[in-house]
Amino acid sequence: MRSNEKSLKTEILAGISTFLACFYIIIVNPAILAEAGMPFSAVLTATVLVSAFGSLMMGLYAKNPIVVAPGMGINAFFTYTAVMGFGLTFEEALGAVFWSGVIFLVLSVFKTREKIIQAIPPAIRHAVSAGIGLFICFIGFQNAHFIIGNEATLVGMAAFKDPISLTFLAGLLFTGGLLVRKISGAIIFGILFTTALAWPIGRWWGDASAVNFGIPTLVNFSGVLAMPDFSLVGKADILGSLRVGYIPVIFVFTFTILFDGISTFVGLSEASGLKDPDGSPQNMRKSLLTDSLATLFAGLVGSSSGTAYIESAVGIEEGGRTGWTAVTAGLLFLPFMFFSPLLSIIPSIASSIALVLVGSFMVIPLTQIRWKDPQEALPSFLTIVLIPFTYSLSVGISFGFISWTVLLLLTGKASQINPILAVISLLSLFFLWI
After folding, report:
1. Into which family does the record put it (predicted)?
2. H-helix or E-strand spanning residue 157
3. Poorest-confidence range of 108-112, 143-147, 150-154?
4. What are phi and psi of 324, to 5 degrees?
5. Is 61 strand, coil or helix?
6. Do the beta carbons of residue 31 and residue 53 sit within 8 Å?
7. pTM of the entire structure?
8. In principle, which of 17, 42, 200, 249 could form an S-S bond with 204, CB 3.0–4.6 Å?
9. What span, in angstroms and rounded, lies between the C-alpha atoms of 167 and 208?
């Protein structure tokens, strides 16, 4: 076999591995956005379109072996904060996603994103990642009905002997075992395993009526194939999302995709050695342009923001070094537009496993915060705990910025306050006030 043929085979196999590592988003993203009142089948179609578009553009234009798909964490913000918290309709939230993509695109074109990145303390960036991880982990436990409401303590654990709790825990531990063994596609295999375990609930034991909208069973088969549902395409309320009260939503969408994308590119480049001569991640500018256009596209077709996936490291470890890895993964997403009836059988306790596990991965940056330095520790801690405790990314992020700036003022270190950070802190205070 000639070397170029062997190289292409390696890239294709790497793309398949990356796809398996990211495939869970096809199931989890529709499950989360459906709670915002969006049709599951339509979100599934949008998820596939964003994943294919972003990954193909990343491969063909940016020439990087990195998959782009709707981001975890930001989809939770879309549903639980933007729609349920701020009161946006899902059409307005899609409009906010669109505008965040426009802002990110402008920042990328005019090369101002680097200045913004430099203005934000690394500790706050690490804290935001960890806070989002705890947030989606908390949502995962809730959606699995493992954590439930409690009048005395606000929240509590469901009965341990409940079949739903036992099935969820079994699936979580099984998936964890696959991850420990470094099985490619561990999360999707865990989701399928948990779905199989959940089939008897309501049929042979237990009753799911209380957690499944009156339906006594968790797993309900309605078919295998259906034509793609494009009903969300063009539904974004682009003008309606520009109300003053919605600005914090656009701000958080923009902030999150900006730092999530850059941190992912930096992390992957460090792990793989894919760097430009100046030491920056390979084709960084084109990669960020791809990220921004994927987000803009997501708002137009009916999904939360697109972003680069850290799971692309799986394909890189398999030898993927060129854009053909991302192209292969992007093409593999497309057929799943036709499987919405089959994928809709997956119960929340199965898809929630991905939320819990991905959330656990996102707290890794905690180790990079200097906890013995109060200047870093207090703002970081407030950011981390307030994101899940207030059920809002915007609140946690805002308090992180504000507390960092106030502590510098109180300790006579005003000269160390970056002007951009000062502006962001003032905007954060304004967002909290309104």
Report:
1. Belongs to the nucleobase:cation symporter-2 (NCS2) (TC 2.A.40) family. Azg-like subfamily.
2. strand 154-157
3. 108-112
4. -65, -25
5. helix
6. no
7. 0.84
8. 200
9. 12
